[in-house]
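re: the backbone from monday

yeah here it is again, tokenized this time
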């Protein structure tokens, strides 16, 4: 822009630049720059003629010159150029650029704008037009020139840098004009719309942003609104393309797009705007809505047509969808416009082109799952869900379905996104479906029925982690009488009509669900169901799908294509073998298939099972399963023979084994690669872990790709098992399963570390829980738990810090879902039991060694810290679900044990700090993290809960597991820790807090109880190679047991004399024994006996390790000074006699311990001899087996007794001990050639001593000893016969392990010979011995004593001993005894019962024994001989033998019909004979 060189040049320039302005003045330009009409034009020479002479300056001359110059400039300016002038290249024209340059000083800027304003005012006055009109027209013309000048192509929406500078100058001038009322917005807008195709969208945006003119004013000033809508739509689409294109002005483009969208949303969806405009009130909102709708329709059309990545359309759609974000609407979120806009947009999506019919949706909906949806559409749905609540979304969806024709693809895709991205919506959808069903059956509303089924099937496609499977829903809705279909016949007809209409369109899987889980129908309407099943089976047959050929474990909940039988059969075989391996039984599904589904069983299952292979030398699970089926006649003989022949052939040609059974690597690698890509996408999205919708979408993709990677179907039914079988000792995984699980676990750990670097767990959103639930599907949970078992239980020390953190967080989230996960049935080394998921993790972590303790501490620290931080704002109930109390107790135990500073009471300032913070440090300091958690206030409050507090019992259980040889503490440190824990920490704690209330006896009681529990559990799961784990020398428990001995010694030395047993409660040790024995299962089965025997062995070892005075007790103060042994006597009589004795005597160790205790009690007594006599006298009646045990071990016991008695009391042994010595001397005299010494009383004591001597003597000595029996008293012989019977049974039941078979046979023959010889003496002297076979507890005197001298098992087996002596019976003498028949029949009945119960198997004779012994020890042969003996003896017995026989037979039942008939017949014959005898009247 510059000054013109002459008036004509000025006129030409003005006409070219501003010709439009002259229209307002009819005079044209002459009125501005030329003289009045009619005036003569003077030549240039004439004009200069008067200026030849130089004029002298005078007063006011300078001002006149200045005014003249201004007038000259004003009359010769290029106004449009002036408004656009920027500092440009130098020219000869007059440049005003420096005056309007923004970089110049403010004074210059003010001068330029004021100058232009003044010039415009003068020029407007000359033209006779309003200055506002003139300035608006010139500004519009300048903008058009500017936009047209720099455009590279006709559809450019952004300005270049030069254009922005010019527009900035123009805007500054315009703002000045506006401020001085020299600018008309309306006229300016009208001028712009005249040339709208030449305008740039950025120019309009900048005019709006700088408040020159608002977009509302621009729009309302346009006469053709449809043209404006088209122009805006076209420019917005171009803008979206340029936003996604690589450009230096991307930020400007994004800001423009956000502003336009925000403006249109406010214009179109803001209520009560109350803006005074010149157009109709509804026109502007309609324009805004039309623009937004056209953009949405363009995007939806592009999606439907299919978009290529990186195409302009793809970029435009992606950019437009990105505007549906909080960043765009953040400034207007407080208004209700965004929510109405989002609802309107959702309606447009759901109703876009409703061309699909319901039948199309039924057929195609499984292709519309979340993972298969276009990513752009899912992203749009997720953005729409941000502002709208789940309740509003479900309600809006319901409203649209009820009032519009809908696009079923979009509707069902919306349902999938809803249940995936909004967990709260899952229950809402379930409730909505229930309402739809109720309405459908109430009024036979087909639309509601269709909607319900489509919605349920769509939600079920997303897996059981977000919605129940279709099979479960169908069964729950229609499989019971509570279903809405059962209210009337009309409802049933409606249901089956609807299901029948679906048959031509739906997949085979749904029809299988309907057939195998049919609706519950009353019997009178059963025809409706049968008609439908017939129709469905016909359709399945058309689809070449057979119900009979379904797999055994095929999942009906999956909507995938039906698996071919030959593809499903190998999976069924593997699952069946796995179940057989864990249970040892043929699975029920296999047995049912062999009967009810024989086509599939014979044609597919058995061929897959009987695939030829090289058979292992040691039969594996597959071989054992095949043999079990063969034994059950479930494999045809011909098929089995073919299989065996093929296997034998395979051994010769192993390379041809099992053709087609190997999987090509490429078939497996491809799904794994896709899974890795999906996991990588999740890792990339972890930069903002709170974006639940984005992460959920990616997790859904992972879930979709898990099935192919595993080689299993979606939602595999095996995950629905109620229990998961797992062997902790040897967990095994298939190679493919391990690869997949390792990928998932690695991804979880990496994602957790990445997310934690951006936000703490409580601000990471629920991605981790969703990822965890994904790992629980696809039959993957058993594999995940197995791999976790391998990592934590077997490879723990090799785990890195990030692994420990990730696995701990995973364990927390698995615990969070414990209510929907099956229990874990663990095997060895732990006892077989069912555990919840948190308890399972607790069982994997042990504290036995230094390495395992460190791992346990790390894991517990990470898991507890993560839980406290993750659920800090939630109730503690969720902590109870996530964490096992055992895990928290182990953490307390290890902190106390490893960190001495934690043993001091916490100060108030210690209870602060974030538990998660130390774990996020680059260099992981576990000690610092553990102590930080320990001192945290929240954790300390958690420990106040009873279930989480470490009690004394808990501490003992954990400390007993420690193995000192690999402990992290030295022996000294461990002893110090034990002393602190017992005496300083737990002893003083109240019982309510798990302490001992200061009672040392309570501490001892709990320790003994825990010690015994630990011993039992350790034995049962093979904790160590040493079977005597606790008390037999295992170092793992030595120190704790030492603490028990120390505390017991403290109690003994205390003033209360705890061993006096004066208290009515008795000694604490026997109280523990008594309580535990009562809790054991009673019975004589093998398992119960072994358990009790094991328990009693532990009792005995505990007793032997404590002071012997425990058995006897201190003598009482009052006279007579007899110690109280009743508790020990009761234990011996009730338990030790049966399980810890051999044929009438206790073991040597407990016998010696008792007599040591007796001597200790005597040393505390005022009269030691009297104390000993009273105690041993009490033994004769209360516990006679103590005395017989002393006789058995007398050669080893006597020297110690003599030595200690002489050293302590300087006198002879007490009389009762001397009596035992005399009995031993009497027995020994039988083996010498001299005359036998007289037998001391009582007779059973001498008999016992004699029996033990005979047992230990050689054959020749036994012969000579037996010859001396003839002169002994009757009572002694009867007792000796009893002991010999016990010896006979003992030779069968407890043969010496180290003896050879011939030696064992010799012992049994010797025992039988001794019994026979003694029986011969008794029969010879006519001494009644039958009473020994009828002993009862009610017997007084000798009978009761003898019962207490033998185990109960021996007494029950007396019938076997009775009939073993048949060859030694004097039959004629026995028959004459009235009691003989009664005893013989009773013994025969009991022998038969023993055989039926299987108890005679314990005395079965091995085949390598002599023929004589086999004939005696074979139970069947013995019963046969006994029966024959009875049948021969019954006719010869006298009449008196049959008294009470009917009563005996009545109690036995139908035990042996022939013997019973013989008895009754003989009894009747005797009675008839009595009738014909002459009565004795006088």
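seq for it, each position gets an aa:
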């Amino acid at each position: 822009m510059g000054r013109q060189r002459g008036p004509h040049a000025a006129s030409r320039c003005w006409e070219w630049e501003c010709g439009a302005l002259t229209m307002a003045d009819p005079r044209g330009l002459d009125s501005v720059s030329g003289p009045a009409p009619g005036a003569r034009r003077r030549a240039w020479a004439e004009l200069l003629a008067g200026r030849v002479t130089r004029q002298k300056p005078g007063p006011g001359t300078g001002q006149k010159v200045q005014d003249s110059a201004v007038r000259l400039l004003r009359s010769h300016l290029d106004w449009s150029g002036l408004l656009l002038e920027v500092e440009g290249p130098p020219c000869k024209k007059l440049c005003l650029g420096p005056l309007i340059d923004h970089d110049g000083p403010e004074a210059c800027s003010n001068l330029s704008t004021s100058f232009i304003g003044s010039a415009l005012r003068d020029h407007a006055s000359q033209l006779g037009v309003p200055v506002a009109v003139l300035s608006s027209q010139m500004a519009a013309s300048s903008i058009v020139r500017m936009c047209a000048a720099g455009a590279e192509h006709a559809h450019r929406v952004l300005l270049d840098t030069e254009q922005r500078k010019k527009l900035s100058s123009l805007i500054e001038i315009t703002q000045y004009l506006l401020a001085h009322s020299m600018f008309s917005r309306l006229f300016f807008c009208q001028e712009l719309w005249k040339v709208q195709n030449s305008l740039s969208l950025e120019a309009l945006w900048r005019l709006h942003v700088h408040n020159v003119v608002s977009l509302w004013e621009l729009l309302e000033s346009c006469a053709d609104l449809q043209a404006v809508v088209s122009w805006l739509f076209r420019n917005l689409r171009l803008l979206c393309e340029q936003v996604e294109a690589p450009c230096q002005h991307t930020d400007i483009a994004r800001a423009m797009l956000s502003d336009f969208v925000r403006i249109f949303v406010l214009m179109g969806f803001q209520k009560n705007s109350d803006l005074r405009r010149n157009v109709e009130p509804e026109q502007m909102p309609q324009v805004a809505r039309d623009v937004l709708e056209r953009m949405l329709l363009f995007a939806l059309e592009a999606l439907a047509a299919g978009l290529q990545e990186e195409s302009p359309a793809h970029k435009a759609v992606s950019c437009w969808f990105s505007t549906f974000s909080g960043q765009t609407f953040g400034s207007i979120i407080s208004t209700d416009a965004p929510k109405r806009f989002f609802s309107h947009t959702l309606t447009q999506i759901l109703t876009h082109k409703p061309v699909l019919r319901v039948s199309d949706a039924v057929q195609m909906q499984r292709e519309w799952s979340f993972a298969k949806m276009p990513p752009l559409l899912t992203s749009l749905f997720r953005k729409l869900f941000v502002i709208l609540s789940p309740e509003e979304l479900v309600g809006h969806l319901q409203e649209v379905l009820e009032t519009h024709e809908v696009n079923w693809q979009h509707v069902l895709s919306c349902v999938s996104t809803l249940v995936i991205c909004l967990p709260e919506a899952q229950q809402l959808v379930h409730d909505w479906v229930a309402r739809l069903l109720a309405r459908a059956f109430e009024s036979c509303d087909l639309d509601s029925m269709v909607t319900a089924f489509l919605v349920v099937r769509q939600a079920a496609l997303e897996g059981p982690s977000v919605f129940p499977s279709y099979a479960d829903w169908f069964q729950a809705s229609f499989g019971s009488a509570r279903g809405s279909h059962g209210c009337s016949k009309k409802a049933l007809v409606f249901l089956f009509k609807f299901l029948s209409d679906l048959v031509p369109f739906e997949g085979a899987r749904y029809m299988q669900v309907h057939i195998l889980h049919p609706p519950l129908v009353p019997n009178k309407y059963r025809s409706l169901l049968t008609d439908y099943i017939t129709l469905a089976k016909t359709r399945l047959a058309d689809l070449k799908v057979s119900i009979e050929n379904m797999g055994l474990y095929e999942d009906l909940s999956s909507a995938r294509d039906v698996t071919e039988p030959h593809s499903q059969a190998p999976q069924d075989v593997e699952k069946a073998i796995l179940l057989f391996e864990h249970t040892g039984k043929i699975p029920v599904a296999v047995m049912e298939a062999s009967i009810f589904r024989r086509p599939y069983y014979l044609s597919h299952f058995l061929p897959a099972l009987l695939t030829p292979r090289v058979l292992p030398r040691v039969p594996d699970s597959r071989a054992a399963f095949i043999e079990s089926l063969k034994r059950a006649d479930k494999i045809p003989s011909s098929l089995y023979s073919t299989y065996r022949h093929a296997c034998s052939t395979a051994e010769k040609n192993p390379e041809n084994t099992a053709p087609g059974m190997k999987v090509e690597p490429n078939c497996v690698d491809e799904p794994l690669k896709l899974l890795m890509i999906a996991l990588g996408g999740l890792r990339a999205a972890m930069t903002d872990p709170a974006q639940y919708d984005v992460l959920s979408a990616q997790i859904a993709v992972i879930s979709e790709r898990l099935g192919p990677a595993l080689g299993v179907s979606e939602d595999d039914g095996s995950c629905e098992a109620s229990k998961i079988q797992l062997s902790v000792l040897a967990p095994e995984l298939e190679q493919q399963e391990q690869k997949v699980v390792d990928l998932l676990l690695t991804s979880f750990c990496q994602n957790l570390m990445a997310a934690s670097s951006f936000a703490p767990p409580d601000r990471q959103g629920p991605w981790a829980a969703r990822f965890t639930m994904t790992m629980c599907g696809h039959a993957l949970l058993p594999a995940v738990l197995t791999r976790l078992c391998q990592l934590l239980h077997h490879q723990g020390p090799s785990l890195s810090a990030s692994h420990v953190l990730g696995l701990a967080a995973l364990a927390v989230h698995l615990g969070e879902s414990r209510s929907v996960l099956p229990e874990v049935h663990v095997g060895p080394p732990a006892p077989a039991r069912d555990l919840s998921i948190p308890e399972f993790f607790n069982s994997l972590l042990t504290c036995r060694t230094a390495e395992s303790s460190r791992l346990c501490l790390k894991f517990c620290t990470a898991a507890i810290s993560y839980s406290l931080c993750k659920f800090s704002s939630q109730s503690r109930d969720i902590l109870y679900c996530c964490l096992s109390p055992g895990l928290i107790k182990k953490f307390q135990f290890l902190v106390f044990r490893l960190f001495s500073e934690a043993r001091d009471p916490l100060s108030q300032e210690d209870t602060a700090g974030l538990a998660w913070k130390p774990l996020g440090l680059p260099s992981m300091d576990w000690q610092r993290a553990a102590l930080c958690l320990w001192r945290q206030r929240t954790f300390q409050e958690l420990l106040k809960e009873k279930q989480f507090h470490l009690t004394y019992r808990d501490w003992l259980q954990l400390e007993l597991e420690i193995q000192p040889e690999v402990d992290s503490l030295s022996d000294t440190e461990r002893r110090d820790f034990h002393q602190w824990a017992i005496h300083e920490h737990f002893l003083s704690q109240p019982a309510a807090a798990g302490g001992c209330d200061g009672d040392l006896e309570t501490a001892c009681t709990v320790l003994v109880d825990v010690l015994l529990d630990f011993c039992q559990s350790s034995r049962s799961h093979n904790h160590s190679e040493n079977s005597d784990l606790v008390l037999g020398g295992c170092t793992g428990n030595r120190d704790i047991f030492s603490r028990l001995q120390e505390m017991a010694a403290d109690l003994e030395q205390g003033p209360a004399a705890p061993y006096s047993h004066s208290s009515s409660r008795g000694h604490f040790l026997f109280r523990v024994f008594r309580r535990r024995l009562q809790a054991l299962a009673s019975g004589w089965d093998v398992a119960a006996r072994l358990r009790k025997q094991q328990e009693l062995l532990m009792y005995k070892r505990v007793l032997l390790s404590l002071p012997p005075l425990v058995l006897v007790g201190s003598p009482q103060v009052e006279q007579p000074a007899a110690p109280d042994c009743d508790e020990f006597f009761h234990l011996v009589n009730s338990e030790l006699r049966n399980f810890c004795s051999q044929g009438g005597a206790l073991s040597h160790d407990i016998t010696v311990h008792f007599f040591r205790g007796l001597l200790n009690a005597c040393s505390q007594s005022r009269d030691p001899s009297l104390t000993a006599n009273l105690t041993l006298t009490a033994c004769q009646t209360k516990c006679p087996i103590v005395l017989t045990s002393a006789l058995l071990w007398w050669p080893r016991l006597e020297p110690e007794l003599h030595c200690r008695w002489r050293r302590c009391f300087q006198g002879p042994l007490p009389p009762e001990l001397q009596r035992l010595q005399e009995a031993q001397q009497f027995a020994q005299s039988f083996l010498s050639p001299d005359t036998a010494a007289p037998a001391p009383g009582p007779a059973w004591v001498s008999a016992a001593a004699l029996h033990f001597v005979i047992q230990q003597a050689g054959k020749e000595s036994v012969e000579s000893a037996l010859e001396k029996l003839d002169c002994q008293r009757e009572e002694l012989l009867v007792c000796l016969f009893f002991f010999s019977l016990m010896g006979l049974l003992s030779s069968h039941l407890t043969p010496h392990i180290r003896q050879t078979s011939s030696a064992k046979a010799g012992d049994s023959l010797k025992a039988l010979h001794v019994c026979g010889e003694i029986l011969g003496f008794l029969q010879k002297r006519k001494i009644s011995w039958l009473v020994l076979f009828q002993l009862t507890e009610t017997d007084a005197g000798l009978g009761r004593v003898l019962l207490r001298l033998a185990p109960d098992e021996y007494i029950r087996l007396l019938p076997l001993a009775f009939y073993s002596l048949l060859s030694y019976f004097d039959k004629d003498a026995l028959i004459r005894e009235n009691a003989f028949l009664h005893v013989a029949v009773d013994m025969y009945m009991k022998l038969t019962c023993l055989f039926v119960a299987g108890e005679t198997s314990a005395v079965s004779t091995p085949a390598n024994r002599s023929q004589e012994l086999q004939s005696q020890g074979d139970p069947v042969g013995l019963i046969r001989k006994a029966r024959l003996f009875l049948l021969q003896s019954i006719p010869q017995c006298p009449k008196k033998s049959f008294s009470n026989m009917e009563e005996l037979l009545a109690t036995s039942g139908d035990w042996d019909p022939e013997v019973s008939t013989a008895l009754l017949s003989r009894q009747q014959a005797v009675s008839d004979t009595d009738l014909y005898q002459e009565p004795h009247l006088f």
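DSSP finds 71 helices and three strands in the chain. Residues 902 and 931 are 7 Å apart (CA to CA).
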